[in-house]
Queue: 2 jobs
Job 1
Amino acid sequence: MTPPSNQDNPRNKTMQASGAAFDSAVLDSLSSHIAVLDREGVIVAVNRAWKQFALDNAAQPGIAPGLTEVGTDYLAVCDRAGGDRAEGAHEAAAGIRQVLRGESGEFVLEYACHSAHQRRWFIMMATPLGSERGGAVLAHTNITARKLAEEALRQSEARNRALISAIPDIIFTLSRAGEYLDVHASDPSLLFMPPERFLHKKIAEVMPASLADAFLAVIAETLRAGAMREMRYWLPVGSEERYFEVRFAPIGDDAVIAIVRDITGSEKERRSRELKAAQLSGRLESREADLHESEQRLALAAEAANLGIWIRDLARGEFWASERWRRLFGFEPDEALEVSSVLERIHPADLPLALDVFGAPAADDGNSDFAYRVLLPNGAMRWISSRKRLECDAAGQPILVRGVSLDITPRKLAELEIQQKQREVTYLARIATLGELSGALAHELNQPLAAILSNAQAAQRFLARDNTDLDEVRDILQDIVDEDKRAGEVIRRLRRLFSKGEASLHALDLNELALEVVRILRNELINRGVMLQTELAPALPPVRADRVQLEQVIINLVSNACDAMEALPMPQRLVIVRTEVGDGNVQVTVEDRGTGIAPQQADKVFVPFATTKDHGMGLGLSICRNIVHAHGGRLWFENNRGGGASFHFNIPAADAGGAA
Amino acid sequence: MSPAPRVFLVDDQPAVLKSLARLLTAAGLESTCYQSAQAFLDDGRTDVPGCLVLDLSMPGMDGIALQRALAEQACILPVIFLSGTGDIDSSVRAMKFGAADFLTKPVDADKLLAAVHAAIEANARARARRAELDGIRALLASLTPREFEVLQLLVQGKLNKQVAAELGAAEKTVKVHRGRIMAKMKTRSLADLVRMVDRAGALRK
């Protein structure tokens, strides 16, 4: 302190930087409560703030009231403190004593001193008074604001910590240079090494190089932009690759906080979703492509198959047909169509059938298939096959007729050609058979001719006599006429057999047919020394058949029977022709005593061109089978128990819905 | 006097039989009709003068079979075949078995009648020959055994003396036998005897 002087100096009056007044002014300007203690711990001086505080806390028990006065034994006050301030006070006294004794250069104590309506904290600082007198300076400073701030901060930190621990993420704090400043992991297993191993390492020491570079780049960007940045990366953890999302947020200018989330699951989910979506869309595309392809194929097939579609709406009485159908029937694409206009085009012979197709059906007979002819306006004719199906409403009433029509002209023409060829083959086989029989047939013709000749020549001789017996001559002439008719019959029979005509169906008695064949073959049988017996059932029902064709069958069977018995001695050659009534049919059997059919020949019996004979083409039985089948019957054989074979065929009886 | 020759017609066709019979009648010939070979055999008239007209192909026993059966019986009726087929095989076969003729139907009257007449004549000749042979045999049968021995040596051209020497008899006896033989055989010359014996074909040793 500078001694008081120069009081008259105007400058000195306004600003005296020394002296007691100066010191007091300085002390009083401080906000801290200051007290000066002597070496005994007695208050020797206080500042204005101290006094003020004492006044403010007058009603307060404890330390406060005793601190107002100069001369108070501060230490004693502290020693005397009780209640919840006791500990703090004792600690303060102990600390001050240390300072007074010179054992420590400074004593600091933070303590709470709440008032009734507010919380207050103070910090007490005791420092030795640096003079020979000793003593200390006590300074109590109100640190409530700081304390409150600290508390708020603590609370905030606690909240953050709670938040962080709730977050299932890993939170790093990284410096700009990439050093791990802090690591928090709620689930340490998410880290590929224990958290503490990260601390103070650089990213480059911990992560793969490329990842570390990426991190550093994003950190730099985060700090530059001062805003959040994020990044995603794959990293092996344990035995598997995991996918992470990291969000960087700047802390100040040099550090970032990095929140890392394991999104492997959701990434996998996302990928699988994407994959599924891709698959679905792929499948959808392929389905669409399939559908398109299918439609194309259908269109192509319909075109290739010449398939036309028509629909008859029974309710509205309308008729619709596709373009192709119209073309099939010779209609213009836009011509007005009605069922009547369709029926006009049908071949007259097939009209009843067409009415079935296009007309309103009484009942649905399922998928019926009709073939009929159509006459086009240009004069051409087509064979059409139509199928129709009924569509009924809930009550079972027909409301729609849908149909499909197909041009079967080529097929039909082929069928007709085959039928024609078959007829020709049947005819040729018959001719061939007749050729083989020609000797016998000629012989048969010979008999009436011989009789006629002898009769006529006899008559001539009678007439040459003088006394002619004219009655005798008349008899002769009558016989000639009869024999001629007989010859004519034979010729007629032959002519029938030689005829090529189309099958003409009549009601036939198979007994009569059998006897006719016996007549035809009579001489052949004699020539071959074969005896023929007939066992004809009485009252056979008539069958609808072509006479010549069935005769052909029986002739063939009997001829085969004779062939089979060539090696037998003549008296044993026996053929039996039997007729019997079957179930809705008439059955004819030709039985022989020949060699029978050997097992290895059994399935070749009806095969064309497969013959065991050294004459003929081996067509006979296959043609016979065709003929029998065409009549709706069956032809089969069996070996007789007593030797030889029996060939059977049956023809449906006429009233049982006979032959086609 | 032998009966008139008869034509036997065998054919399974009645119309043909009838017309042939008519024709034969118109030609002044007797005929009998059979509808089967068996029927003819059963009738047993195989030793009657005439001939057979047979249809070749008949059910049961055909013409050839009948011909063979008749041959076994030593029937001398000539057989004329009538055939509806004119094939060479049948005709050759028939002729080999000794048919008199082979004709095809329809048969012309003239051809048939010519064949029939020829057959009848052949048959008559055959019958006569047979009758003659039978006569000779009967005469031969009337000889005593001794006489037969003498005859056999005589037809060999041996003189009485030689015959006697061979037989160990007297020449005189041989002469007696000779006379009796001539008488029984109703002949006067040795040449005749020789001829007869030759004809009979019965040369016993």
Job 2
Amino acid sequence: MVVIMLEKVPSSVRGELTRWMLELRSGVFVGNISALVRDKLWEVICLKLRGGAAFLLHNADTEQGFTIRSSGDSSRIIQDFDGLLLTRIP
Amino acid sequence: MKDLHALPKVRDSLSYLYVEHCRVDQDDKAIAFHDGGGKVPVPCASLVSLMLGPGTTITHAAVRTLAEHGCLVLWTGEMGVRFYAQGMGETRAARNFLQQARLVSTPEWRLRVVRRMYEMRFIEPLDESLTLQQIRGKEGIRVRETYARLSRETGVAWSGRSYRRDNWGSADPVNRALSAANSCLYGVCHAAIVSAGYSPALGFIHTGKMLSFVYDIADLYKADLTIPLAFHAVAEGQTNLESRIRRACRDVFHDARLLQRIIPDIERALSVLSPSENAEKDFDSEDALPGGLWDPLAGEMEGGVNWATAEEELEQ
């Protein structure tokens, strides 16, 4: 399962995602896409962010069971504590 | 959410979180740690142990919250070696604790647990005729060979285990690495023991220390988990050793499914009694439960059981 959350990004980016995933609520996308598609989409998102922010969440074989990637400025930062991902609120 | 049965189990939880140079406080119904860069909320209900390193302070409210969620709190020093730990466990019943006390105090039963613990460390079953002395000898060989093999495989020099906590500088990197890795393992084992309602002090192989049982259980996993990872971490270099070891511990514990195995393993180590010896029946709450049958040799045989043998049945 893959979840992508977008904050203040151009509509072209959101449009690209709706081809592959369900937009459950504004800026929140969920899907069961392959790793290849997921990584490609993330690349596109990172290139076109333009001041917004994005989070990518997917299953992983780690203790937590998932991994998070983030890009852009957001009110929350993902921080890695010896392999455990937590959110930091500055 | 006060229903104890609904609370997360050790097997579904996160093994540990290590923090330093911050203030740990209650945050809403959970906890968070605060430092110069803001605050980081911590999902303490699914955390088995919290390791507090140098520069940390913790509030009364945070400790209360951690206790409510059954998270063990450990204070650690150099190389993550813990010098203080406290946790109550969520199970209020003393049943497991009393059973462990009974086993450790009855020499014949204690010996059975000791043998079972040694057996659990070996892949092949142990010959029943071996004496305890001989089993200890085999274990000594197994441990020595583990160190020697890893030293060969990783190219890291090994000249024996040294425990000098007063002078970390003089200890070689691989000994410091072993101490750091074992500290993570002890924390997780201690937390699981307390969470399952057992005592960390009542050890079977180890004796005389307040964490003897923790060392007993941790020894089930050292040769497979922490000793290899310590050698590999040192082989990769000496920068950031402590942090790399903690990270490696998390991955190794996950791959080995340590949190899922630990409580079943503890129970396996301690189930050495036959049903008739395990006379812990609560007759007050279960009137219909049959009592035992007196026997001149065994003392008591189990009641509610048909003792006719197959041949006796045929003769009828």
